Amino acid sequence: MAVKRPSGPQGSLIMGNANQFREDEPKFLLESVKTYGDLVYFRLANMHTYLVGHPDLIREVLVTQSDKFEKAPLDKTILGKFLGNGLLTSDGQFHRRQRRLAQPAFHSKRIQNYAGVMVDYANQIMDGWQDEAVMDITHEMMHLTMLIVSKTLFNADAITESGDTAETISSAMDDFQAVSNRDYQRGFSLPNWIPTADNRLRNRAATEFNKVMDQIISGRRQTAVNGQVEDTGDLLSMLMLSVDEDGEFMDDKQLRDEVATLFAAGHETTSNALSWTWFLLAQHPEVEAKLHAELDSVLAGHQPTLADLPNLPYTLQVIKEAMRLYPPAWILNGRLALEDAELGGYIVPKGSTVFVSPYVMHHLPQYFDEPEAFKPERFTPEFEKSLPKFAYMPFGGGARVCIGNAFAMMEAQLLLATIAQKYRLALAQTEPVRHKAQITLIPENGIQMRVMERETAVSPTAELSFA
Ligand code: HEM
Question: Which atom of ligand 1 is nearest to the CA of 399?
Fold first, then answer.
């Protein structure tokens, strides 16, 4: 019997809607929901795709019926080539075990210790800036979040004498991300043994990465006392110390996969959130002025600390609104239906793929008045309470909600406060800045910005440590 499908955009016989999709993915998805409603059907070559555009249906996919779905094969194949069976790419029972083991590393008390490191690195980055210099701010933010993730994940600057560990790892990560983006663009990934230029690049990156990680992990095991590795304050220590209910620790291969996953998931996302924030602030002087007023009155020239964050509500609103307009994770990983699932009165057949897109939800006028406008003022506590769950979802939702959510929000708020207290960033390019949907939503060609010192006295940089 033919399955009744929800409506959706017309496509071509062979490619379906793949070409329209690739032109501007977030826009295609948004227009589809606006035109066809809460559940849209389209086809990307041979992939039968259901796009969910209503909070209640998203709840069905991510919460109520989540056991009927797993991560889609395309995502698992492309990302799994480097991230193995880590938190982002694993499923079912195994994922639940790993999530339980990793959770203590993200306990709020634990991650709060990283506030000092975040502020210190922001200061270190700014030490390299000169008043009135023009730079690609996406590059600066990427470097900054990479240093922070290396330090908090495996205490990077303390592990090799040459001090190049973070650089080796981040260049391996860059190669992996570049190849993965090209695979997504193609819509498939050739098996690793085929010696294409991209496969060779990714295999080399994986070998480099694994070599460094193995050194780090075995170093930690060597200094263990009575089989107990030392807690050096970073996330890796916690992962190595975690035991499951059967008394089992993670083995070295699994530790590597989790570290690669946290590294990959944990820096480009936050870096993009910040780059888009600078871009928006530069175009909205009234928002920028209000942000500066808050920073100047609350911090009065002191370095921001964890204790200041509750007193910087507007700073937080600015970040939330930037992540609404430009959600770094513009789409969740596809979800493969493991069995037929009923959604909004339709049957989503086994084997089809479900898309959930934070970008789409964040741009719907039924939830966000003037959705294209940058208005941090909208994010009042009352407004947030009144929003249906899953209308605003930069970190996804359900059991697979981002494990680094609180880490990322603390990081973004601290970095914005530290930098905006010292510098104003103005747009220094005439070409329009366009989004590009890769694994994350990036500015297509970076953003050239001029950094200008503000006239506020800020106390000097402190020591780099897990305070
Ligand atoms: C602004 C920054 C960030 C954004 C927007 C973001 C967004 C997301 C989203 C949307 C998901 C869900 C993906 C899905 O359901 O398919 C996710 C998962 C994940 N994120 Fe983040 N993330 C951010 C920062 C971080 C950080 C800092 C870390 C770690 C240090 C991290 C680690 C992870 C991991 C491990 C997962 C997989 C969780 C699981 O499936 O159990 N993320 N993130």
Answer: 41
Answer whether residue 181 is part of any domain: yes
Digit-coded pLDDT (tens) for 22-62: 999 999 999 999 999 999 999 999 999 999 999 999 999 99
Q: Please tell me the distance from the alpha carbon of residue 143 to that of residue 50, in angstroms, as a whole number.
A: 37
Burial of residue 194 (number of CB atoms within 10 Å: 0-12, 13-18, 19+)? exposed
The answer to whether residue 208 is domain-embedded is yes
Sequence-ordered alpha helix ranges (H) in 342-404: 358-362, 381-386
* pLDDT over 90 at 158, yes or no: no
Ligand 1 atom at shortest distance from the alpha carbon of 440: 5
The CA distance from 350 to 404, in Å, is 31
Domain that holds residue 240: 18-84+94-453
Minimum CA distance residue for ligand 1 atom 43: 402
Residue (of 351, 356, 349) closest to 334 by Cα position: 356
- Which atom of ligand 1 has the smallest separation from the CA of 358? 10
- In angstroms and rounded to an integer, the radius of gyration of the C-alpha atoms of the chain is 22
Which of 121, 402, 413, 441 for mutating ligand 1's site (highest number of atoms within 8 Å of CB)?
Answer: 402
Is the distance from the beta carbon of residue 400 to the nearest atom of ligand 1 less than 6 Å? yes
Residue bearing the CA closest to ligand 1, atom 20: 402
Over residues 289-298, the pLDDT tens digits come to: 999 999 999 9
The pLDDT tens digits for 48-106 are: 999 999 999 999 999 999 999 999 999 999 999 999 999 999 999 999 999 999 999 99
Lowest mean pLDDT: which of 211-215, 238-242, 326-330, 349-353? 211-215
| Number of separate domains in the chain | 1
Nearest CA to ligand 1 atom 39: 400
Report whether residue 83 contacts ligand 1, using a CB cutoff of 6 Å: no
Does the beta carbon of 332 lie inside 6 Å of ligand 1?
Answer: yes
In a domain, 107, yes or no: yes
pTM score? 0.95
Q: Read out DSSP for 198-225?
A: HHHHHHHHHHHHHHHHHHHHHHHHHT-B
Asked if residue 460 is part of any domain, the answer here is: no
Q: Could you give the 3-state DSSP secondary structure of residue 12?
A: strand
Residue of the CA atom closest to atom 6 of ligand 1: 395
CATH of the domain at 261: 1.10.630.10
Percent of the chain with pLDDT over 90: 88
The pLDDT, as a whole number, for residue 239 is 96
Q: Ligand 1 within 6 A of 419 CB?
A: no
- Classify the C-alpha dihedral 318-322-328-329 as positive or negative: positive
Binding site membership of 357 for ligand 1 (Cβ less than 6 Å): no
Q: Using one digit for the tens of pLDDT, what is the confidence trace for 411-435?
A: 999 999 999 999 999 999 999 999 9
